Amino acid sequence: MKDLDLTLDCMENARFNFIYGSIVTHVESPFSETELLCLAMIYHKFVLLNGPKAKYMTHRQLGNFIMQMFRVTDTDINGRVVAVVSDDPDCTDPKFSQDRHCTLPSFVKMFTTYFVSDLEERMIFVYSIYDENRLGYLNREHVMRFVEKFFVGEDEDEQIEMRTDMLELIFIKFDLDKDLQISFDEYAEIVRKQPALLEFLGTVFPSKVQLNTVALCVNLY
């Protein structure tokens, strides 16, 4: 394999090919081999920042990458994205996040998820982000934690009133069987009719402009 990155010397390029060449060929993804190699090189650059003996990108690096490149700025949602793509439920706990790491397949999984256009797959991902405790449903207390972030200001009474009204509207809309819980099936039924409600509790996916910018940067490699 030819040197992929001219900012690295021949030895480092050879090391990159040795470490990631076989991994790239076994990663399931809609991306081409060249695109996967470019993603692997970006991943490798983050690994190099962790020292000469480092093998992985950290969760903190991944969270910062998601925040800066994809503009997922809500810290709770950002942490959940890291947890879901890394398949590591403990990584949202500050006691664990600093020492956790993200593998290359997980890094590619993040890009695969963000660039998918299928509504069903997007719904599954978004709901898994909102369902922080992996209960299989969203209750009123859980939803309120998201709603509280929608209204900020100096008038506390007004904020409480607006949050309460928003919570009621959400459950009127999504809680179809009126059991005070929003299941995935209820969420999916509403979103299939109104796709604009996909991210009703906060931004999970980047905008198309952001995706196009990231795609261009990756392809430039």
Automatic annotation (TrEMBL):
SUPFAM superfamilies: EF-hand. It comes from the Eukaryota. Residues 162-197 form the EF-hand domain. GO terms for molecular function: calcium ion binding. This is EF-hand domain-containing protein. It comes from Drosophila navojoa (Fruit fly).
